[in-house]
């Protein structure tokens, strides 16, 4: 019996030893993985820093015309050495991991890149110069960001600041609400929506005269002349009458298409300006234009209650052209699905 007991103890001891070795190797693997990861990230950030310095030199020598002489160097350095928030958080995270690793081992060399790691830096430079990480999806994400520098946001900003913000608010009894009230009194009619309706179809094309079985063109609102950069420019808003009565009444609407979208449509179909990116990302531009324009309209107090942008699909599921009158009718009855669910 003593022999059997000794054998059992020996087996148990062997199992404990094996478990201890497994735990030791597991801990060693984790520690080594952390150390290697920190070394890799340190190598990447060092390679990125050297690349930024190189681009600073090239920019200073080759593209000096884009900068003022008195602050050329400072602007180039600031632009080149600016990191986005994600990169800063990542760098701080790996610095904390590196300090944790050093606190355990007491040896800072465990997280410093070796010569072998540094020898791989040219791979990062090749990757950066070849733009391997870029794709059309990257352009889509860039358009969706709220920097305001993309084509869609630029069109929306110009449309808002150069037209809507000028012609709609009240100045000297010439705002949109005043002109609509005068129009109602003079013609004994009622506007179905007491705002300027801006149509933004996904096709981006709108005729000079809206084509609809339910709408008839009426006299426009009173023309407004506004001084813009030393030139008095006419601002006019079209009016349409719905020939189908709603609750026994005939309603009128101040409607116009989003002219920047029509310009974009023309650009896409012109050999002078069309690019494959414009065709590929036209829906991104369409949605971003609507979202940015709506944000500008609702943020500025003077236009908050004066514009009703309506975004919609130009064709139904069967491919038939959608009647704008039906869209207005559905919008009045509050049955349309919010496009914000699509845009977000």
Automatic annotation (TrEMBL):
Membrane topology according to the record: Multi-pass membrane protein
Protein name in UniProt: Uncharacterized protein
InterPro entries: STING, STING_C, STING_C_sf, STING_LBD, STING_TM
One matching Pfam family: STING_TM
Lineage per the UniProt record: Eukaryota, Metazoa, Ecdysozoa, Arthropoda, Hexapoda
Domain of life: Eukaryota
Domain STING ligand-binding span(s) in chain numbering: 150-335
Natural source organism: Drosophila erecta
Location(s) in or outside the cell: Membrane
């Amino acid at each position: 019996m003593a022999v059997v007991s000794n054998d059992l103890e020996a087996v148990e001891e062997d199992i404990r030893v094996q478990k201890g070795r497994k735990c030791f190797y597991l801990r060693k693997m984790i520690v080594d993985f952390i150390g290697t990861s920190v070394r890799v990230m340190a190598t990447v950030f060092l390679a990125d820093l050297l690349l930024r310095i190189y681009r600073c030199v090239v920019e200073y020598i080759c593209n000096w015309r884009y900068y003022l002489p008195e602050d050329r160097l400072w602007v180039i350095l600031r632009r080149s050495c600016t990191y986005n928030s994600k990169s800063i958080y990542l760098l701080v995270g790996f610095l904390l991991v590196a300090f944790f690793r050093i606190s355990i081992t007491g040896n800072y060399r465990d997280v410093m890149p070796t010569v072998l790691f540094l020898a791989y830096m040219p791979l990062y430079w090749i990757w950066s110069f070849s733009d391997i990480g870029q794709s059309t999806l990257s352009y889509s994400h860039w358009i969706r960001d709220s920097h305001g520098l993309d084509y869609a946001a630029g069109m929306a900003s110009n449309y808002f600041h150069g037209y809507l913000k000028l012609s709609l608010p009240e100045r000297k009894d010439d705002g949109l609400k005043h002109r609509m009230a005068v129009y109602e009194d003079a013609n004994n009619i009622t506007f179905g929506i007491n705002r300027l309706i801006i149509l933004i179809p996904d096709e981006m094309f709108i005729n000079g005269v809206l084509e609809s079985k339910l709408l008839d063109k009426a006299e426009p609102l009173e023309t407004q002349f506004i001084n813009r950069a030393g030139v008095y420019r006419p601002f006019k808003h079209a009016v349409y009458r719905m020939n189908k009565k709603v609750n026994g009444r005939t309603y009128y609407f101040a409607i116009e298409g989003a002219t920047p979208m029509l310009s974009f449509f023309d650009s896409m179909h012109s050999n002078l300006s069309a690019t494959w990116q414009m065709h590929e990302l036209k829906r991104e531009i369409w949605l971003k234009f609507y979202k940015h324009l709506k944000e500008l309209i609702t943020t500025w107090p003077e236009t908050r209650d004066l514009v009703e942008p309506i975004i919609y699909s130009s064709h139904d599921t069967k491919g038939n052209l959608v009647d704008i009158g039906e869209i207005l009718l559905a919008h009045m009855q509050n049955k349309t699905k919010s496009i914000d669910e699509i845009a977000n």
